[in-house]
Amino acid sequence: MNQEEQVQVLGLWGSPFSKRVEMVLKLKGIPYEYIEEDVYVQKSPRLLKLNPIHKKVPVLVHQGKSIAESLVIVEYIEDTWTTSYPMLPHDPYERSMARFWAKYADDKVMLTLWKACWGPESEREKMVEEAYDGLKYLEEELGDKQFFGGETIGLVDIAADFIAYWFGIAQEASGVMIMTAERFPKLQRWSQNFVRNNIIKEVLPPKEKLMALFKAQFGNNASNEA
Amino acid sequence: MGDEVILLDYWPSMFGMRTRVALEEKNIKFDYREQDLFNKSPILLEMNPVHKKIPVLIHNGKPVCESLIQVEYIDETWPGDNPFLPSDPYQRAQAKFWGDFIDKKVYGPTRLIWGAKGEEQEAGTKEFIEMLKMLESELGDKTYFGGETFGYVDIALIGFYCWFDVLEKCGNFSIEAECPKLIAWAKRCMKRESVAKSLPDSDKITKFVPELKKKIGIE
């Protein structure tokens, strides 16, 4: 494979955004070079050059050109490598639904879950309610399907990666229990299917490392009481 | 058999304008239904139960929500000979990147400019100008964001143009002075029938904003 063909991913080991890109590349069997960018310590000149607008990871570099924003990157991969493991259905209406739910998981639900775990105490109750609402819609949308994408992992599953893996660890670290098996049995089942997938599990960051990171960055709720 | 296309919309919404422009560009006949966002209709609540927001595109009874998703849906469903998105994957990714940028970075500041006061308003104005300059830099000397043809990013941004007058008045600044190329681009877009039909007059928006503020309880 020549230099131009090579795919590079600039990422961060613990980031669900970064991992989305790696998951899709691996599912499609696309080899890539991974470059860790410790954005919290120092943003490298390379990163600032490749993503001058947002200065964030992940960034995908292919054929000398860079693409930023994880879900934009996922669709780029889908458009470029068309023969293996499709992430989106063919039908325009089904595609618009997948994009809708991916955006919902990414824009709305993820933020609500994060705030519910670690937002200010005064807003906790409200955030938890919003978290329940957000997850409720996803639970309904999932229904009895194995994945949001049907029998195989699709765009929505990838966009909801935080919910499948990171959120469980965040709940443990913060002590705030929201996505329980009782309240959300389908999402619970789905998250287990997702993290046990042979390819996905190779990509996920180690639980202990994430747990340590969350505890260090956010402390424990009990200790944050004003 | 014809298609039944309904658009649930709110006349001043720069998001709704995207879908209007997209439908007009493709010459699709649609039933425009004005919504009262302060008294949401049963059809709106039924068709967009998750967000309860406009615009909602209903095609043969099935709803599509979120304006940029609608624009892409329209492009995929009625391809015709004027695609909004290029076929090259990298160019497509660039278009989607900028559409996402407009949603995440441009809309928020506008809310502060007309809705806030003092330092908050100033911060909004500063941020807005910075974001517009990034867009202007991306446009460069091209006719449209995608090059020679009117497309996705143009559609994503043009609805903001009719809000420029009121933003300038509220924020006490001149967009033309800061971003002349962007104004020139907007005027080019306004010459298109699809855009002229879909955007309300700036005056209407300028008169509307004080009423809106009263309705949502600011000032």
From TrEMBL, chain A:
Gene3D superfamilies: 1.20.1050.10, Glutaredoxin. GO terms for molecular function: glutathione transferase activity. Residues 91-213 form the GST C-terminal domain. GO terms for biological process: glutathione metabolic process; toxin catabolic process. CDD domains: GST_C_Tau, GST_N_Tau. Pfam families: GST_C, GST_N. Residues 5-85 form the GST N-terminal domain. It comes from the Eukaryota. Its EC number is 2.5.1.18. It catalyses: RX + glutathione = an S-substituted glutathione + a halide anion + H(+). One of its GO terms (cellular component) is cytosol. It is found in: Cytoplasm, Cytosol. Belongs to the GST superfamily. Tau family. This is glutathione transferase.
TrEMBL record, chain B:
Its EC number is 2.5.1.18. GO terms for cellular component: cytosol. One of its GO terms (biological process) is toxin catabolic process. It is found in: Cytoplasm, Cytosol. This is Glutathione S-transferase. GO terms for molecular function: glutathione transferase activity. Its main location: cytoplasm. It is an enzyme of class 2 (transferase). Gene3D superfamilies: 1.20.1050.10, Glutaredoxin (3.40.30.10). Residues 3-82 form the GST N-terminal domain. Residues 88-208 form the GST C-terminal domain. Is involved in the conjugation of reduced glutathione to a wide number of exogenous and endogenous hydrophobic electrophiles. It comes from the Eukaryota. The lineage of its organism: Eukaryota, Viridiplantae, Streptophyta, Embryophyta, Tracheophyta. It catalyses: RX + glutathione = an S-substituted glutathione + a halide anion + H(+). Keywords: Cytoplasm, Detoxification, Transferase. Belongs to the GST superfamily. Tau family. InterPro entries: Glutathione-S-Trfase_C-like, Glutathione-S-Trfase_C_sf, Glutathione_S-Trfase, Glutathione_S-Trfase_N, GST_C_Tau, Omega/Tau-like, Thioredoxin-like_sf.
